[in-house]
Amino acid sequence: MIELPTSLVVLQWVVLSALALFIIVMYRQLGYLLGLLDAMSTGGGLDLNVPAPTFDYERALDHGEKSKFVPAGSKSVLLFVDPGCGSCSFAVEQLSKWAHRDDASDLRLVAVVTAPDSALATTHELTNSGLEIARVEPQVPSRLYRVHATPFAYAIDERGMVVARGTVTRQRDIAVLVETLTSTAGSATTRSERGGSR
Fold it and tell me: How far apart are alpha carbons 37 and 42 in whole angstroms?
């Protein structure tokens, strides 16, 4: 009968335990990635007619003044963007057109970013947009608002409820979101449900 040294037996159990831990961690990561892929394939975002989450933010390019976004009480369009993203620059440009229109004067137009001021300063479309720029912690877009790709926007009514949402890639997309808030019907809709053309 062969006897193994005690240290070899202990080492064997340590290696098996480490392997088991590795498998558990990889299994959890795979589950997270599959959930993320599922969210992205279904368009992502919060469901319609649910309360939009409140979050803390810093007013970017405004000395980092602290503030809180409270959805209820005003109609809002939240546009999640990343500096340097071509589609995001286009979306900011489209939303900024509404900043000075009389028919949208009661709307709160917010560009939500996670980038530091140094990255924002080089993005002229954003800094000169006339939009409120809210810098948030990285978990706000992904965990609170389920935004996994930008540009993505929400229309939130005065009750603080999500009434429209979608990826903003066409000229008509922002208009559909804003019109949802400015129309008297106020029916909940998504960009894909309303359609839209270039």
Answer: 9
